[in-house]
Design a protein that fits this description.
With 468 residues, the chain is mainly alpha-helical. The protein has one domain (16-462): Growth Hormone, Chain: A (Up-down Bundle), CATH 1.20.1250. Helix content is 77%, strand content 0%. The chain contains 23 helices and no strands. Helix 6 packs across helix 19. The chain is globular and about 65 Å long. The two termini are 30 Å apart. The relative contact order is 0.15.
Length: 468
């Protein structure tokens, strides 16, 4: 780092522990809020907000609202990216977290369709859009806090900490739903795959209301951050762009497209293994469209076991990407995802052990592909537009992947007469698109995150960064 000018104060530096905790804490809260909606979208929202004589239609309606938030995410990426690239990462992260927290809390106090008709459904959609809008600004800011403060040679490792918020948020959110289910058991003789009357009446609200406590903790942690030195130097040198969106579209369009498709397989795998699998696992074997027939508690415990591998291999992926490069690491993982999609059904047909292996393998691959994204996407863009560029790529991919994945998966599940083999083919096809994007891209491991050093630094390292 250049020495400060005589008489000037040195740029404040965030302690490494504070960087890791702040990036991890914020995304954990954001993903917790997102997951509890996803769980409620399967368990109770179809009957509370989307009444229909056809359970599948109600479920698809609930998933459609789940996907609507993904449409709002790119809008959030543009708005929060503009603020983050002009005003700084810290302030923007505080606003995005507060927005998510308020929307999630309000879902917990909404009237149901039986109480307010379609007004209740409209309010749920509005809050869901606010959640997506907030998450659109959260991820890129958290990734930048981690990577822009990372020591040399450990950028991918630091970038895994905001990614770790996804499995932790899943465990906390679904763990709380399990606790509520245990405290509010179904009556004797009731269908064990369905939540109890008390849970449907008010128990589902508790996880949403509890988010207020988590948000308060997250705001306290983030309020203690100082701006990253990389962004501070860009601002001091006059490198801040007046319209970051215009700059990134005009000058970095290729990176936007590549980043979007590099994330595609990750998103599809992510939401198939969480949202779709929960619906498929709980559906009775003798239903019109048969599922695996597990009760809610058993299947969620199996999912949480798989998510432990998600967390572990998210951390494992960082050192691998730092050592071998982001591109090479992700190419091999993407090929593995393609194969996983093709062996999806044979694994499930092995019985409970096979289903558990399916979950473990799926979540392991999820950790391996998700971890390096925290470094790779920010590395595609210069500091002056990094918040906007990485956020747009990450969140536009959410439309192409996550927004439609549960919806398409249910349709393919029905088409396959209860067998999800077409769902696996869909995953493999999306992995092919990601593989193409990776092959067209370049290695970013040695790219400088400092705009003032990037030109000379990249030129010096050009041979090392050429596609291998």
């Amino acid at each position: 780092m250049p020495a400060p000018a005589p008489g000037s104060a040195p740029t404040p530096v965030n302690p490494r522990s504070r960087v890791l905790v702040a990036s991890l804490m914020g995304t954990t809260i954001e993903f917790y809020d997102f997951y509890i909606y996803a769980t409620a979208a399967v368990l109770v929202f179809p009957q509370l907000f989307f009444p229909s004589s056809d359970p599948t239609t109600a479920l698809l309606s609930s998933f459609a609202v789940f996907g609507a938030a993904m449409v709002a995410r790119p809008i959030g990426a543009v708005v929060f990216g503009h603020l983050g690239d002009r005003l700084g990462r810290k302030k923007t992260l505080v606003v995005s977290l507060l927005t998510m927290g308020i929307a999630t809390f309000l879902i917990g106090v909404l009237p149901t369709y039986a109480q307010a008709g379609w007004v209740a459904t409209a309010l749920l959609v509005l809050m869901r859009l606010a959640q997506g809008f907030a998450l659109g600004g959260e991820w890129s800011g958290a990734a930048l806090v981690a990577t822009e403060n990372a020591p040399s040679g450990k950028r991918a490792l630091y970038g895994t900490f905001p990614q770790l918020g996804a499995p932790l948020g899943f465990i906390i959110g679904n763990g709380l739903f399990l606790v509520m289910g245990a405290l509010l058991p179904s009556a004797a003789g009731a269908d064990p795959s369905q939540p109890s009357e008390a849970f449907v009446s008010w128990g589902w609200r508790v996880p949403f209301l509890f988010s207020a406590v988590m948000v308060a903790i997250g705001l306290w942690v983030r309020s203690r951050l100082v701006e990253s030195a990389v962004f501070a130097r860009t601002r001091e040198s006059g490198g801040v762009r007046r319209l970051p969106l215009a700059t990134v579209v005009r000058s970095h369009g290729k990176q936007l497209v590549l980043g979007t498709f590099i994330m595609l397989a990750t998103y599809v795998l992510f939401y198939l293994m969480t949202t779709f699998s929960l619906s498929y696992g709980r559906t009775a074997k003798d239903a019109a469209v048969p599922g695996l027939g597990y009760d809610y508690t058993t299947f969620v415990l199996m999912m949480i076991f798989g998510v432990l591998f998600f967390a572990a291999f998210t951390l494992v992926s960082g050192p691998l990407a730092d050592r071998y490069g982001r591109r090479v690491t992700l190419i091999w993982i993407t090929v593995a995802i393609m194969v996983f999609g093709l062996v999806w059904v044979p694994l499930i047909e092995l019985g409970t052990l096979g289903v558990l292996l399916w979950l473990v393998l799926g979540f392991t691959l999820m950790g391996m592909t998700f971890g390096p994204m925290g470094a790779l996407l920010p590395e595609l863009f210069p500091t002056s537009v990094r918040y906007t560029g990485s956020g747009i790529s990450y969140n536009v991919s959410s439309i192409l992947g996550a927004a439609v994945a549960p919806f398409i998966a249910v349709a393919l599940w029905e088409t396959g007469d209860g067998s999800p083999w077409l769902v696996g083919v869909y995953l493999s096809a999306m992995a092919v698109l990601t593989l193409i994007a990776l092959l067209l891209g370049k290695e970013t491991r040695h790219v400088s995150l400092d705009d003032r050093e990037a030109t000379a630094d990249d030129a010096a390292r050009a041979p090392a960064d050429s596609p291998s």
